[in-house]
């Protein structure tokens, strides 16, 4: 009877989806941290390995009841666990519609919250202004937290990506970014400048301001 139960339990666990996610930085992520999707606890980190090329491979398990939600459109990024227990977590977000479910053992490239939100903007603008405004709000919140987790050079890369998105996007997307996102971006950059001024580093913000000026010209 014990053997029979072991087989059943083993079979149940085998239905979970195992993934490998590669990140450039892990910001203190450790085994046991949660994986979250739409406020649901869908899995956990089972291991973290530092690779020779300077990246991190994160082993993750997705509970079988959520594995169909994980597709080639899913993107994963590290956040502060909203539980407030001082831990990190991986959040999953799906962009650009339906995709193909990932196979067990798939290796995927991790993202950051800012880059995922940039990608989601293009998808939202095709659906409704309300969706895009919500994404812009989330982007602004992510930017406010970015200096704690990411250096200014990384933030420059996001502004460069936004510039590229604006150049290739339609008028509706550009107008929304100009009217809604850029004022929020400027506000957060001004706050960052003020914080850096306290340690005599305010000049580090100048490249960001130059990029903001370029975005306003689009």
Concise account of the structure shown:
The chain is an alpha/beta fold.
Detailed description of the structure:
The protein has 218 residues and is an alpha/beta fold. The chain folds into two domains: 2-109; 113-216. It is built from six helices and seven strands. The chain has a seven-stranded mixed β-sheet with strand order 5-6-2-3-4-1-7. Strand 2 and strand 3 form a beta hairpin. The chain is globular.
Distance between the termini: 70 Å
Question: How many domain regions?
Answer: 2
Q: How would a crystallographer describe the biggest sheet? A: 7 strands, mixed
- What's the Cα radius of gyration? 20 Å
Judging from the principal axes of the Cα atoms, what is the shape?
globular
Uncertain residue segments: 1-13
Q: Could you tell me the number of beta strands? A: 7
Largest beta sheet: strand ordering: 5-6-2-3-4-1-7
Mean pLDDT equals 79
Helix count equals: 6
Give the fraction of residues assigned to helices: 40-55%
Tell me the β content.
15-25%
Pattern of helices and strands: HEEEEEEEHHHHH
Task: Classify the secondary structure makeup into a structural class.
Answer: alpha/beta
List the helices and strands and how they pair.
Layout: H1 2-13, E1 17-23, E2 34-37, E3 40-50, E4 56-62, E5 74-80, E6 88-94, E7 106-109, H2 113-125, H3 129-149, H4 152-168, H5 171-197, H6 206-216
